[in-house]
Amino acid sequence: MLNQKSYIHCKKEKLSRRNDKTVSKIYELPEYSVTILIKELEREDIGVGGKLLSDIKK
């Protein structure tokens, strides 16, 4: 079983790979010309429906 850090890394890798393929296909560009940035935000930096995610119970 993967530890939490490895699990998250695998998910980000999968996200990057799929987005890269999709963008390159739609824009008809080679995959190496696509850059995917993953910006992680704290729950207190995200608002949904007028409430911060940090204030919404899971």
From TrEMBL:
Coiled-coil regions listed in the entry: none
A single Pfam family, by name? Answer: Tautomerase
* Key words of the record: Isomerase
Q: Which domain of life is it from?
A: Archaea
The residue range of the signal peptide is none
GO molecular function, a single term? isomerase activity
Has keyword ATP-binding? no
Q: Where is the 4-oxalocrotonate tautomerase-like domain?
A: 11-55
Listed name of the protein: 4-oxalocrotonate tautomerase-like domain-containing protein
